[in-house]
């Protein structure tokens, strides 16, 4: 195989795992990442320390909003057949503080990538969206056919707007596009502020941490290996020019239950400070994955207890924690 693909945000949590797996499968991988300081950029460099040694891996340090960088990739990497667009401004809560950044990156950056894909006539555009687009949807599990009304954060609204641009470009310019709605992805390299990473670190260090709400909120936690498998499966989807799929575990766990799992795995007790529920948070997420099962052969294999065990093992090895 000598197929060349572009991964945006390929030094991040999900992107770095995706790049590794694509290289293992024989693809040539081009990665663009701006190594921003949303969290320590050193973490991203650690994420890609293995892949940068691969002769089929090319790294462009730049921003998807910068058309000059994209034009440089166009000149130097003209044979790109698939674009995996993962780069985004992360964080629901941060979007309440800096909403304009999410418009610029998550919407404007996506349009830049769609233009890039149109110019290169790529075979497939795969967009990483989020379960947050379902907003206050009272119906569970969330289905791709559900009405998408009531997004509760600028992050969610920007992701939804980017989805619409993907659909529009597919209809007008014929770009074959797949939108993947991720449900609470976790695993090794997860961003430091994300719940499982933050709670694990705090518990192992014996430090108290904040829990927002009464602990009864629930999430459909999805292990990184399952997500990466689903992303790669999207390459071969060809039934329609535009399609949306949920990628989740299709099993919900409450916040309190998740913390208890970390306690069992670490052998240490959590010191919790209860806080009011935060603006922008939804009470529940739950993925209906029947569509992805049918068309992507997507069948998640890792339950949360097993996944937390793998994450805690990675965290201890990475940080030398007891």
Give an overview in words.
Helix 3 (67-76) runs parallel beside helix 5 (99-120) and helix 7 crosses helix 11 (304-319). The chain has 11 helices and 13 strands. By secondary structure, the protein is α/β, with parallel strands linked by helices. The longest helix is centred in the middle third of the chain and has 22 residues, at 99-120. Strands 3-2-1-4-5-6-11 form a 7-stranded parallel sheet, with helices on both faces. It has a two-stranded parallel ribbon with strand order 7-10. The protein has a two-stranded parallel sheet with strand order 8-13. The model has no long low-confidence stretch (mean pLDDT 95).
In DSSP terms (H or I, runs of 4 or more residues), the helix count works out at 11
Order of helices and strands: EHEHEHEHHEHEEHEEEHEEHEHH
Work out the oligomeric state of the chains in this entry. single chain
Q: What's the overall geometry? A: globular
Kindly report the spatial arrangement of strands forming the biggest sheet.
Answer: 3-2-1-4-5-6-11
Q: How many E-type strands?
A: 13
The major beta sheet can be summarized as: 7 strands, parallel
Overall mean confidence score, pLDDT? 95
Helix content: 40-55%
Which stretches are low in confidence, meaning pLDDT under 50 for 5 or more residues running? Answer: none
In whole angstroms, the N-to-C terminal distance is: 43 Å
Spatial extent as radius of gyration: 19 Å
Beta-strand proportion: 15-25%
Structural class label = alpha/beta
């Amino acid at each position: 195989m000598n197929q060349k693909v572009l991964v945006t945000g390929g030094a991040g949590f999900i992107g770095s795992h995706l790049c590794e797996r694509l290289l293992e499968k024989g693809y040539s991988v081009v990665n663009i990442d701006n190594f921003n300081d949303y969290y320590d950029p050193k973490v991203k460099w650690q994420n890609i320390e293995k892949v940068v040694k691969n002769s089929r891996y090319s790294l462009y340090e730049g921003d998807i909003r910068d058309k000059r960088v994209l034009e440089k990739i166009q000149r130097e990497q003209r044979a790109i057949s698939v674009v995996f667009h993962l780069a985004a401004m992360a964080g629901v809560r941060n979007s309440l503080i800096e909403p304009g950044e999410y418009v610029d990156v998550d919407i404007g950056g996506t349009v830049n990538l769609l233009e890039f894909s149109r110019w290169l006539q790529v075979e497939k555009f795969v967009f990483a969206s989020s379960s947050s687009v379902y907003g206050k949807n009272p119906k569970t599990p969330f289905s791709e056919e559900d009405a998408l009304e009531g997004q509760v954060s600028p992050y969610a609204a920007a992701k939804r707007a980017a989805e619409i641009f993907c659909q529009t470009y597919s209809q007008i310019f014929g770009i074959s596009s797949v939108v993947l709605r991720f449900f609470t992805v976790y695993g090794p390299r997860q961003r430091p502020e994300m719940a499982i990473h933050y709670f694990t670190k705090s518990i192992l260090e014996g430090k108290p941490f904040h829990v927002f709400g009464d602990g009864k909120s629930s999430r459909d936690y999805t292990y990184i290996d399952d997500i990466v498998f689903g992303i790669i499966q999207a390459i071969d989807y060809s039934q329609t020019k535009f399609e949306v799929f949920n990628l989740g575990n299709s099993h919900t766990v409450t916040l309190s239950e998740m913390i208890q799992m970390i306690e069992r795995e670490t052998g240490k007790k959590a010191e919790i400070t209860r806080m009011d529920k935060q603006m922008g948070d939804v009470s529940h997420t739950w993925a209906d994955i029947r569509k992805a099962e049918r068309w992507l052969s997507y069948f998640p294999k890792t339950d949360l207890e097993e996944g937390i065990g793998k994450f805690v093992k990675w965290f201890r090895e990475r940080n030398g924690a007891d």
